[in-house]
Predict the structure of Lymphocyte antigen 6 complex locus protein G6c isoform X2.
Amino acid sequence: MKGLLLITLSFLLCWVSADIRCHSCYKVPLLGCVDRQFCHLEPGQQCLTTNAYLGKMWVFSNLRCGTPEEPCREAFNQTNHKLGLTYNTTCCNKDNCNNPAPRPTPALALVLLTSLAGLSLWLLH
C-alpha cells in the first residue's frame, strides 16, 4: 500500500511540474524581452530570473527554466570584478512566476531615444 501511495504521489508531482511554464528571454532597457519564449519546468526544477546591475543601474535580465545541469540557485550581490557587474538571481516554481514586465510600447521607446539624442547633441555644443 505504501508503494502504491509513493508511486501515485511521484506521478502527481511530475504531472504538476510538467504544466509549469517559465518565461525565457534576455530583457534589456528600452526594448524589453528580446526573443521571448516559454519553457516547461522539468520535475524538481524552478524558473529563474537573473538581474545584472552596474552600480545601482539595471543593465539586463536573463529569464529561463532551471535544468538538472544548471539548476536555479538563489544568489544576491554576486560581483564580477572584471566587468564591474553585480548579479541577483531569484527562483520560483509557479506557472509564469518569472513573468517580465510588459514590453515598452514602440512609441515610448522612440520618445526616449529621441530625448536622449537631443540631450546628447545639446551637451556636445
Q: What stands out?
A: The chain has one domain: 20-111. The first helix runs from residue 2 to 18. DSSP finds two helices and six strands in the chain. The two ends are 82 Å apart (CA to CA).
